[in-house]
């Protein structure tokens, strides 16, 4: 993959971070990087006062650093800022961080040497993945703490994972055949002053959330069949008179999934209208789709931006201190995404309740089990889903509304964007499990409904594909068994994106 700082996408990040695609710089980026560095060298020679190049950092911005100490300044920056704690980020998150920092530096506004950036590229391409603690970032000035831990390995310090083994930075660089760097003026700051940790977590969470949006439509369609739901609410005429984009997409998805189904009913055939969790899927799922579309737009601007400080503009002969490191755009949108995805779990759990509750499930056995009393069936699966939904409600409290001043009040408003991104990822993971439970319940309900309607009763074109995929991995529940492994299996199936891809191969794109 050729990166130039201009057109990286969420899917590109997945290809590199998850699938291991290799990366290289574009020729145009190489020229910009070299030109920017040449200008930094001129600044040093002229002894100009420039933040982070010939001065200290944060509140120390007024302390002038002598030319002979500029290297030590950058080394001290990385060491002093490596104060991360907590669990380590997963390897795919760190790979995404590395890619995003490379892409930001490829824009040519940071004054880094090409050889330094090539070291980070070599680490990414050869599988040297720094160990980066997940806690410690305020999200302004960018993700200083996690990015400093990333850079530690570049200078032969810290720790990294290489071929599944955790090794000291110096050792892993030697084994991988990469020479550690000695940081020159501006380089430490160029490497750590940016939003790449929050953007890395956020980008991967967003990719998963988009898949969950499609999966929620699939689960909802299966649920509609299991409860002999009414298809009329998904009519194009209903969506046309309230033409939110996501609402129209969800209704179209469900109609496409249910084409040919003999389980669904028409308005007035058996009942006049369904409960909200069935009838209002386009309005709820659709609002989530619209939210994710907005988040994607913001994140793809962010991942193709120069987010450090100061920025170098060699063509204009200027170095400008600004605030592009501030993570507020990411923070607000990670909170937004967390709230949106929480709603997918919330409505899913209520659909699960309708399936297992004998007062609501249109004549199916209580808790979807035969010999109820001796068997508890899927009673407790709803408990687990409810627990996850409740946890999401706590996690959905926004991080971006908080700020604590730092650096002696020089940095007096911060974004908490990395906290927002980490919370959003946890909400996504919880929602995967809720949808997995809905799949477990809906397929069980389909089997029981078929026993009432006849074994030859047809599912929709799309839902039949999903039903078969589920049944290949999780058999019908004949009597009580441990269900946690079934949920894990289906959660992996959801996370893989296989459900949506399999459906799309046969009935066309879900959106």
From TrEMBL:
The modification 2,3-didehydroalanine (Ser) is found at residue 141. GO terms for cellular component: cytoplasm. SUPFAM superfamilies: L-aspartase-like. It catalyses: L-histidine = trans-urocanate + NH4(+). It comes from the Bacteria. Its EC number is 4.3.1.3. GO terms for molecular function: histidine ammonia-lyase activity. Contains an active site 4-methylidene-imidazol-5-one (MIO), which is formed autocatalytically by cyclization and dehydration of residues Ala-Ser-Gly. Keywords: Cytoplasm, Histidine metabolism, Lyase. It is found in: Cytoplasm. Its main location: cytoplasm. There is a cross-link at residues 140-142 (5-imidazolinone (Ala-Gly)). GO terms for biological process: L-histidine catabolic process to glutamate and formamide; L-histidine catabolic process to glutamate and formate. Pathway: Amino-acid degradation; L-histidine degradation into L-glutamate; N-formimidoyl-L-glutamate from L-histidine: step 1/3. PANTHER family: HISTIDINE AMMONIA-LYASE (PTHR10362). Belongs to the PAL/histidase family. This is Histidine ammonia-lyase.
């Amino acid at each position: 993959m050729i990166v130039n700082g201009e057109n990286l996408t969420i899917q590109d990040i997945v290809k590199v971070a998850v699938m291991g695609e290799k990366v290289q710089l574009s020729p145009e980026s190489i020229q910009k990087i070299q030109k920017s560095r040449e200008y930094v060298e001129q600044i040093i020679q002229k002894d100009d006062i420039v933040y982070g190049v010939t001065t200290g950092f944060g509140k120390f911005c007024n302390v002038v650093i002598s030319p002979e100490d500029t290297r030590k300044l950058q080394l001290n920056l990385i060491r002093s800022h490596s104060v991360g704690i907590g669990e380590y980020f997963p390897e795919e998150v760190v790979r995404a961080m590395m890619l995003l920092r490379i892409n930001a530096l490829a824009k040519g506004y940071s004054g880094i040497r090409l050889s330094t950036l090539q070291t980070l590229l070599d680490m990414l391409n050869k599988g040297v993945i720094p160990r980066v603690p997940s806690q410690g970032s305020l999200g302004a000035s960018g993700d200083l703490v996690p990015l400093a831990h990333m850079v530690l390995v570049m200078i032969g310090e810290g720790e990294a994972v290489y071929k599944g083994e955790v090794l000291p930075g110096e050792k892993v660089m030697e084994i991988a055949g990469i020479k550690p760097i000695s940081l020159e003026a501006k380089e430490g700051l160029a490497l750590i002053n940016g939003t790449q940790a929050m953007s890395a977590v956020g980008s991967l969470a967003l990719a998963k959330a988009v898949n969950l949006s499609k999966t929620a439509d699939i689960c909802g369609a299966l649920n509609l069949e299991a409860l002999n739901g009414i298809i009329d609410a998904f009519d194009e005429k209903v969506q046309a008179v309230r033409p939110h984009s996501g609402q129209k997409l969800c209704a179209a998805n469900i109609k496409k999934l249910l084409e040919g189904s003999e389980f669904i009913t028409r308005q007035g055939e058996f009942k006049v209208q369904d409960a909200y969790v069935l009838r209002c899927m386009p309005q709820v799922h659709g609002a989530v789709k619209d939210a994710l579309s907005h988040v994607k737009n913001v994140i793809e601007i962010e991942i193709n931006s120069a987010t450090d400080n100061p920025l170098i503009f060699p063509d204009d002969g200027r170095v400008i201190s600004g605030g592009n490191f501030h993570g507020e755009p990411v923070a607000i949108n990670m909170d937004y995404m967390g709230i949106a995805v929480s709603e997918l779990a919330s409505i899913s759990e209520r659909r699960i309740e309708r399936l297992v509750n004998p007062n609501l499930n249109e004549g199916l056995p209580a808790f979807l089990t035969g010999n109820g009393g001796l068997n508890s069936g899927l009673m407790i699966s709803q408990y687990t889903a409810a627990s996850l939904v409740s946890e999401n409600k706590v996690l959905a409290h926004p991080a971006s509304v908080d700020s604590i001043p730092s650096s002696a009040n020089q940095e007096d408003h911060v974004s908490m964007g990395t906290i927002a991104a980490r919370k959003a990822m946890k909400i996504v993971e919880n929602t995967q499990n809720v949808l997995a439970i809905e799949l477990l319940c809906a397929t069980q309900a389909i089997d029981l409904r078929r026993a009432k309607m006849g074994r030859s009763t047809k599912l929709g074109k799309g839902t039949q594909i999903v039903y078969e995929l589920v049944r290949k991995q999780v058999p019908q529940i004949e009597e009580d068994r441990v269900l946690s492994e079934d949920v894990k299996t289906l959660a992996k199936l959801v996370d893989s994106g296989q459900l949506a891809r399999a459906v799309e191969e046969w009935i066309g794109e879900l959106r």
